[in-house]
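Lecture 7 notes: from sequence to structure.
We start with the chain below.
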Amino acid sequence: MNKWIQTGCAIVCSAFLIFALSACKQEAKLTKVKVAEVTHSIFYAPLYVAVSKGFFKEEGLDIEVNTTWGGDKTMTSLLSNGSDIALVGSETSIYVESQGAKDPVINFAQLTQTDGTFLVAREDIENFDWDMVKGKTFLGQRKGGMPQMAGEFVLNKHNIDPQKDVDLIQNIDFANIANAFASGTGDYVQLFEPTASLFEKEGIGHIVASFGEESGRVPYTTFMAKKTYLTEHEETAEKFTRAVYKAQQWVEKHSSKEIAEAIKSEFDDTEPDIIEASIDRYKKQNSFSTDPLLNEKEWEQLQMIMDQAGELPKHIPYSQLVDTKIAKKVTSEK
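Predicted C-alpha coordinates for the same chain:
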Protein backbone atom coordinates (compact mmCIF):
# COMPACT_ATOMS: atom_id res chain seq x y z
CA MET A 1 0.00 0.00 0.00
CA ASN A 2 1.21 3.49 -0.84
CA LYS A 3 2.79 5.06 2.26
CA TRP A 4 0.70 8.23 1.80
CA ILE A 5 -2.46 6.14 1.80
CA GLN A 6 -1.23 4.28 4.88
CA THR A 7 -0.50 7.55 6.63
CA GLY A 8 -3.92 8.94 5.67
CA CYS A 9 -5.67 5.85 6.95
CA ALA A 10 -3.76 6.06 10.21
CA ILE A 11 -4.73 9.71 10.65
CA VAL A 12 -8.42 8.99 9.93
CA CYS A 13 -8.44 6.02 12.32
CA SER A 14 -6.73 8.04 15.04
CA ALA A 15 -9.18 10.88 14.60
CA PHE A 16 -12.12 8.47 14.75
CA LEU A 17 -10.71 6.83 17.88
CA ILE A 18 -10.20 10.19 19.58
CA PHE A 19 -13.76 11.22 18.65
CA ALA A 20 -15.18 7.93 19.94
CA LEU A 21 -13.25 8.15 23.20
CA SER A 22 -14.29 11.77 23.60
CA ALA A 23 -17.96 10.86 23.03
CA CYS A 24 -17.77 8.04 25.56
CA LYS A 25 -16.07 10.32 28.06
CA GLN A 26 -18.76 12.97 27.53
CA GLU A 27 -21.50 10.36 27.97
CA ALA A 28 -19.83 9.10 31.14
CA LYS A 29 -20.01 12.59 32.63
CA LEU A 30 -23.80 12.56 32.64
CA THR A 31 -25.27 12.40 36.13
CA LYS A 32 -28.03 9.82 36.51
CA VAL A 33 -31.29 11.07 38.02
CA LYS A 34 -34.16 8.68 38.69
CA VAL A 35 -37.60 10.29 38.40
CA ALA A 36 -40.85 8.65 39.53
CA GLU A 37 -43.94 10.05 37.78
CA VAL A 38 -47.32 9.41 39.36
CA THR A 39 -48.87 8.58 35.97
CA HIS A 40 -47.92 8.86 32.31
CA SER A 41 -49.98 11.64 30.83
CA ILE A 42 -49.95 14.31 28.14
CA PHE A 43 -50.64 16.55 31.14
CA TYR A 44 -46.87 16.28 31.78
CA ALA A 45 -45.88 17.36 28.27
CA PRO A 46 -43.11 19.78 29.42
CA LEU A 47 -41.26 16.91 31.13
CA TYR A 48 -41.26 14.87 27.92
CA VAL A 49 -40.23 17.92 25.91
CA ALA A 50 -37.24 18.35 28.23
CA VAL A 51 -36.25 14.76 27.42
CA SER A 52 -36.93 14.80 23.66
CA LYS A 53 -35.31 18.18 23.05
CA GLY A 54 -32.21 17.19 25.00
CA PHE A 55 -32.56 19.89 27.66
CA PHE A 56 -31.58 17.47 30.43
CA LYS A 57 -28.53 16.27 28.50
CA GLU A 58 -27.52 19.87 27.88
CA GLU A 59 -27.34 20.16 31.67
CA GLY A 60 -25.27 16.98 31.94
CA LEU A 61 -28.10 14.81 33.23
CA ASP A 62 -29.20 11.33 32.28
CA ILE A 63 -32.89 11.14 33.23
CA GLU A 64 -34.61 7.84 33.90
CA VAL A 65 -38.39 8.28 34.18
CA ASN A 66 -40.45 5.47 35.69
CA THR A 67 -44.24 5.53 36.01
CA THR A 68 -45.28 4.48 39.50
CA TRP A 69 -49.09 4.69 39.05
CA GLY A 70 -50.48 6.40 42.12
CA GLY A 71 -49.47 8.97 44.71
CA ASP A 72 -48.87 6.42 47.46
CA LYS A 73 -46.60 4.27 45.29
CA THR A 74 -44.75 7.32 43.99
CA MET A 75 -44.06 8.59 47.48
CA THR A 76 -42.98 5.12 48.62
CA SER A 77 -40.46 5.07 45.77
CA LEU A 78 -39.09 8.45 46.83
CA LEU A 79 -38.90 7.70 50.55
CA SER A 80 -37.22 4.33 49.98
CA ASN A 81 -34.62 5.87 47.62
CA GLY A 82 -36.06 4.02 44.66
CA SER A 83 -36.13 7.42 42.97
CA ASP A 84 -34.32 10.71 43.48
CA ILE A 85 -37.14 13.02 42.40
CA ALA A 86 -40.89 12.49 42.31
CA LEU A 87 -43.43 14.13 40.01
CA VAL A 88 -46.67 13.98 41.97
CA GLY A 89 -49.35 16.13 43.57
CA SER A 90 -48.17 18.47 46.32
CA GLU A 91 -50.75 17.04 48.70
CA THR A 92 -48.56 13.94 49.10
CA SER A 93 -45.80 16.00 50.70
CA ILE A 94 -48.35 17.29 53.21
CA TYR A 95 -49.46 13.75 54.06
CA VAL A 96 -45.85 12.68 54.64
CA GLU A 97 -45.11 15.73 56.78
CA SER A 98 -48.18 15.19 58.93
CA GLN A 99 -46.89 11.72 59.78
CA GLY A 100 -43.78 13.22 61.33
CA ALA A 101 -41.25 12.64 58.55
CA LYS A 102 -37.64 12.95 59.75
CA ASP A 103 -36.55 13.87 56.24
CA PRO A 104 -39.25 16.18 54.83
CA VAL A 105 -40.27 15.99 51.19
CA ILE A 106 -39.75 19.41 49.62
CA ASN A 107 -41.56 20.86 46.59
CA PHE A 108 -38.89 22.62 44.52
CA ALA A 109 -40.28 22.95 40.98
CA GLN A 110 -43.84 23.13 39.70
CA LEU A 111 -44.91 21.51 36.43
CA THR A 112 -48.69 21.94 36.24
CA GLN A 113 -50.86 24.61 37.82
CA THR A 114 -54.44 23.42 37.37
CA ASP A 115 -56.33 20.19 37.74
CA GLY A 116 -55.85 18.06 34.64
CA THR A 117 -59.15 16.19 34.53
CA PHE A 118 -62.32 16.69 32.51
CA LEU A 119 -65.90 15.73 33.19
CA VAL A 120 -66.97 13.20 30.59
CA ALA A 121 -70.65 12.39 30.15
CA ARG A 122 -71.99 9.26 28.53
CA GLU A 123 -74.42 11.31 26.45
CA ASP A 124 -73.65 14.26 24.18
CA ILE A 125 -75.06 17.20 26.16
CA GLU A 126 -75.35 20.38 24.14
CA ASN A 127 -76.02 22.78 27.02
CA PHE A 128 -74.48 21.17 30.06
CA ASP A 129 -75.40 22.38 33.52
CA TRP A 130 -73.81 21.01 36.69
CA ASP A 131 -77.26 20.28 38.15
CA MET A 132 -77.49 17.50 35.57
CA VAL A 133 -74.98 15.52 37.65
CA LYS A 134 -77.37 15.29 40.61
CA GLY A 135 -78.82 11.83 41.11
CA LYS A 136 -76.42 10.32 38.59
CA THR A 137 -73.64 7.74 38.98
CA PHE A 138 -70.26 9.44 39.07
CA LEU A 139 -66.95 7.59 38.69
CA GLY A 140 -64.55 9.54 40.84
CA GLN A 141 -60.88 9.17 41.63
CA ARG A 142 -58.95 7.78 44.61
CA LYS A 143 -60.05 9.13 47.99
CA GLY A 144 -57.49 11.65 49.26
CA GLY A 145 -55.92 12.12 45.84
CA MET A 146 -55.85 15.55 44.25
CA PRO A 147 -58.12 14.67 41.29
CA GLN A 148 -60.87 13.49 43.64
CA MET A 149 -60.49 16.42 46.02
CA ALA A 150 -60.57 18.91 43.14
CA GLY A 151 -63.61 17.10 41.79
CA GLU A 152 -65.41 17.35 45.12
CA PHE A 153 -64.41 21.02 45.41
CA VAL A 154 -66.02 21.77 42.04
CA LEU A 155 -69.17 19.82 42.86
CA ASN A 156 -69.52 21.69 46.16
CA LYS A 157 -68.95 24.96 44.30
CA HIS A 158 -72.06 24.14 42.28
CA ASN A 159 -74.07 23.20 45.40
CA ILE A 160 -73.73 19.48 44.80
CA ASP A 161 -72.88 17.34 47.82
CA PRO A 162 -70.62 14.59 46.40
CA GLN A 163 -71.58 12.26 49.25
CA LYS A 164 -75.35 12.77 49.04
CA ASP A 165 -76.38 14.22 45.68
CA VAL A 166 -74.55 11.74 43.42
CA ASP A 167 -73.91 8.02 43.47
CA LEU A 168 -70.14 8.33 43.93
CA ILE A 169 -67.99 5.32 43.00
CA GLN A 170 -64.45 5.42 44.42
CA ASN A 171 -63.48 1.78 44.75
CA ILE A 172 -61.99 1.36 41.28
CA ASP A 173 -58.21 1.54 40.83
CA PHE A 174 -56.95 4.61 39.00
CA ALA A 175 -55.68 2.54 36.07
CA ASN A 176 -59.11 0.90 35.58
CA ILE A 177 -61.46 3.89 35.88
CA ALA A 178 -61.54 4.59 32.13
CA ASN A 179 -62.13 0.92 31.31
CA ALA A 180 -64.98 0.76 33.81
CA PHE A 181 -66.71 3.70 32.13
CA ALA A 182 -66.10 2.25 28.67
CA SER A 183 -67.67 -1.01 29.88
CA GLY A 184 -70.86 0.79 30.86
CA THR A 185 -70.36 1.80 34.50
CA GLY A 186 -71.44 5.31 35.43
CA ASP A 187 -73.17 8.28 33.84
CA TYR A 188 -70.22 10.63 34.37
CA VAL A 189 -66.50 10.08 34.82
CA GLN A 190 -63.51 12.26 35.68
CA LEU A 191 -60.69 11.62 33.18
CA PHE A 192 -57.26 12.90 32.23
CA GLU A 193 -56.10 13.40 28.68
CA PRO A 194 -55.62 11.77 26.24
CA THR A 195 -58.33 9.37 27.44
CA ALA A 196 -60.99 12.07 27.54
CA SER A 197 -60.38 13.14 23.92
CA LEU A 198 -60.03 9.52 22.79
CA PHE A 199 -63.40 8.62 24.32
CA GLU A 200 -64.95 11.61 22.59
CA LYS A 201 -63.48 10.60 19.23
CA GLU A 202 -64.71 7.02 19.63
CA GLY A 203 -68.15 8.08 20.84
CA ILE A 204 -67.74 6.43 24.23
CA GLY A 205 -68.25 9.71 26.08
CA HIS A 206 -68.34 13.47 25.63
CA ILE A 207 -66.33 16.18 27.41
CA VAL A 208 -68.80 18.59 29.00
CA ALA A 209 -66.68 20.50 31.55
CA SER A 210 -63.15 21.08 32.82
CA PHE A 211 -62.23 20.61 36.47
CA GLY A 212 -59.08 22.61 35.80
CA GLU A 213 -61.03 25.68 34.76
CA GLU A 214 -63.44 25.29 37.67
CA SER A 215 -61.00 24.71 40.54
CA GLY A 216 -58.47 27.49 39.87
CA ARG A 217 -54.69 27.58 40.23
CA VAL A 218 -53.09 24.94 42.46
CA PRO A 219 -49.66 23.23 42.59
CA TYR A 220 -51.27 20.20 41.01
CA THR A 221 -48.10 18.35 40.04
CA THR A 222 -44.67 19.32 41.26
CA PHE A 223 -41.18 17.93 41.33
CA MET A 224 -40.20 17.11 44.88
CA ALA A 225 -37.31 15.45 46.66
CA LYS A 226 -36.23 14.67 50.18
CA LYS A 227 -34.61 17.59 51.95
CA THR A 228 -31.34 15.69 52.31
CA TYR A 229 -31.19 15.03 48.57
CA LEU A 230 -31.64 18.72 47.76
CA THR A 231 -28.92 19.58 50.27
CA GLU A 232 -26.43 16.95 49.12
CA HIS A 233 -27.20 17.27 45.39
CA GLU A 234 -28.03 20.95 45.08
CA GLU A 235 -26.13 21.35 41.80
CA THR A 236 -27.97 18.40 40.25
CA ALA A 237 -31.34 19.76 41.41
CA GLU A 238 -30.43 23.13 39.92
CA LYS A 239 -29.51 21.58 36.57
CA PHE A 240 -32.71 19.55 36.64
CA THR A 241 -34.84 22.63 37.31
CA ARG A 242 -33.06 24.63 34.61
CA ALA A 243 -33.86 21.91 32.05
CA VAL A 244 -37.51 21.87 33.16
CA TYR A 245 -37.68 25.66 32.83
CA LYS A 246 -36.24 25.49 29.30
CA ALA A 247 -38.97 23.00 28.41
CA GLN A 248 -41.70 25.12 30.01
CA GLN A 249 -40.61 28.11 27.96
CA TRP A 250 -40.42 25.98 24.81
CA VAL A 251 -43.96 24.68 25.37
CA GLU A 252 -45.23 28.22 25.98
CA LYS A 253 -43.76 29.47 22.69
CA HIS A 254 -44.69 26.57 20.42
CA SER A 255 -47.95 25.34 18.96
CA SER A 256 -49.88 22.31 20.14
CA LYS A 257 -48.97 20.58 16.88
CA GLU A 258 -45.24 21.18 17.44
CA ILE A 259 -45.45 19.97 21.04
CA ALA A 260 -47.35 16.88 19.91
CA GLU A 261 -44.59 16.14 17.40
CA ALA A 262 -41.95 16.52 20.13
CA ILE A 263 -43.59 14.07 22.55
CA LYS A 264 -45.27 11.58 20.19
CA SER A 265 -42.69 8.86 20.96
CA GLU A 266 -43.97 8.86 24.56
CA PHE A 267 -47.45 7.91 23.36
CA ASP A 268 -46.98 5.36 20.58
CA ASP A 269 -50.51 4.01 20.98
CA THR A 270 -52.15 7.43 20.66
CA GLU A 271 -53.02 9.04 17.33
CA PRO A 272 -51.21 12.35 16.64
CA ASP A 273 -54.50 14.27 16.36
CA ILE A 274 -55.54 13.09 19.83
CA ILE A 275 -52.18 14.14 21.31
CA GLU A 276 -52.53 17.54 19.68
CA ALA A 277 -56.14 17.98 20.82
CA SER A 278 -55.18 17.06 24.39
CA ILE A 279 -52.30 19.53 24.46
CA ASP A 280 -54.54 22.20 23.00
CA ARG A 281 -57.07 21.76 25.81
CA TYR A 282 -54.35 22.07 28.44
CA LYS A 283 -52.76 25.09 26.78
CA LYS A 284 -56.08 26.91 26.48
CA GLN A 285 -56.77 26.55 30.21
CA ASN A 286 -53.15 27.36 31.15
CA SER A 287 -52.54 24.01 32.83
CA PHE A 288 -48.82 23.98 32.02
CA SER A 289 -46.76 26.17 34.34
CA THR A 290 -44.62 28.60 32.37
CA ASP A 291 -41.95 28.54 35.08
CA PRO A 292 -41.08 26.25 38.02
CA LEU A 293 -42.06 28.72 40.76
CA LEU A 294 -44.73 27.53 43.19
CA ASN A 295 -46.35 30.55 44.82
CA GLU A 296 -47.95 30.81 48.24
CA LYS A 297 -51.44 31.63 46.97
CA GLU A 298 -51.54 28.34 45.05
CA TRP A 299 -50.25 26.48 48.11
CA GLU A 300 -53.05 27.90 50.27
CA GLN A 301 -55.65 27.10 47.59
CA LEU A 302 -54.43 23.50 47.65
CA GLN A 303 -54.89 23.22 51.41
CA MET A 304 -58.29 24.87 51.24
CA ILE A 305 -59.42 22.22 48.74
CA MET A 306 -57.97 19.46 50.92
CA ASP A 307 -59.67 20.87 54.00
CA GLN A 308 -63.05 21.07 52.29
CA ALA A 309 -62.67 17.42 51.27
CA GLY A 310 -61.89 16.50 54.89
CA GLU A 311 -58.42 15.27 53.93
CA LEU A 312 -56.14 17.98 55.37
CA PRO A 313 -54.31 16.45 58.39
CA LYS A 314 -53.10 19.87 59.50
CA HIS A 315 -52.21 23.19 57.92
CA ILE A 316 -48.58 23.26 56.73
CA PRO A 317 -46.93 26.65 56.21
CA TYR A 318 -45.72 27.38 52.69
CA SER A 319 -42.13 27.92 53.86
CA GLN A 320 -42.04 24.50 55.51
CA LEU A 321 -42.48 22.33 52.43
CA VAL A 322 -41.80 24.67 49.51
CA ASP A 323 -38.31 25.80 48.55
CA THR A 324 -38.20 28.25 45.65
CA LYS A 325 -34.50 29.08 45.93
CA ILE A 326 -33.47 26.99 42.93
CA ALA A 327 -36.47 27.98 40.82
CA LYS A 328 -35.83 31.66 41.47
CA LYS A 329 -32.19 31.26 40.52
CA VAL A 330 -32.79 29.54 37.17
CA THR A 331 -35.62 31.89 36.18
CA SER A 332 -33.49 34.95 36.90
CA GLU A 333 -30.65 33.80 34.65
CA LYS A 334 -30.25 35.49 31.28
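Points to note: The CA atoms of residues 160 and 334 lie 48 Å apart. The chain has two domains: 30-114+218-332, 117-215.
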